[in-house]
């Protein structure tokens, strides 16, 4: 566990300072709300980047883990009266167990077979959330109790922003250290050639399962935070289109780039805010931007720009 003791890197310090100073330019609750959605999306993107960018395993079902995490904490706290400090970690455990159970069979697949398997998983979770109305509230969704500290319910967007910003910095720190640990080197070997990795003694399936579970738990954490922040959940949280958006964030920012995942999340979460006046063209513009990046910057925005800076990385 020596990788947990690594000294924070300059990039991480810059990220922390940027998150700490961002509220200085916020003038209303709506801007805090958008920023919070940026941070939760970034958390999912960082975890998905570990799976796709470093292990080379695609997932089109991560919105399912996001939605499942949100619903488990919602059901436990709203329907069964669990305190939030128990329902939230319980949701992460449930998602971790599910991810571990399904990872071994589906990660034996590769390419489009793996993509279809993860897609089917995400759709299945969405269907369950929509049809089990007695538990989840069905298509209408359900209310979620707020987080309470010292008997006081927390609604203020400033506190939520601070909490999620701290968790995002911790997520990035763990991701960076994981990448440079023996686990990260094993993941890169798996991405390069599973056969070659197995020849030198790397337990490829074990490492793929591990990183699949880690990325699923990070998606669930973002879902848990979103549920208690918004106070309401619907099956739409697990919609397939959100899985595609998460994948696009990783590809746009740069695969195998932790900071690229952050940049991709920022761009794809904020861009629709600037395109609200052209609703009919929004998807066309987003698609055009993605095409330009894929054609002219095939490694993504951040890796391409990093190559222009001496010593630039991640």
TrEMBL record:
Keywords: Cell membrane, Membrane, Transmembrane, Transmembrane helix. GO terms for molecular function: branched-chain amino acid transmembrane transporter activity. Its main location: membrane. It is a multi-pass membrane protein. GO terms for cellular component: plasma membrane. This is Branched-chain amino acid ABC transporter membrane protein. The chain crosses the membrane at residues 37-56, 63-82, 88-107, 114-139, 159-179, 209-229, 249-271, 283-306. It comes from Salinisphaera shabanensis E1L3A. CDD domains: TM_PBP1_LivM_like (cd06581). It is found in: Cell inner membrane. The gene is livM.
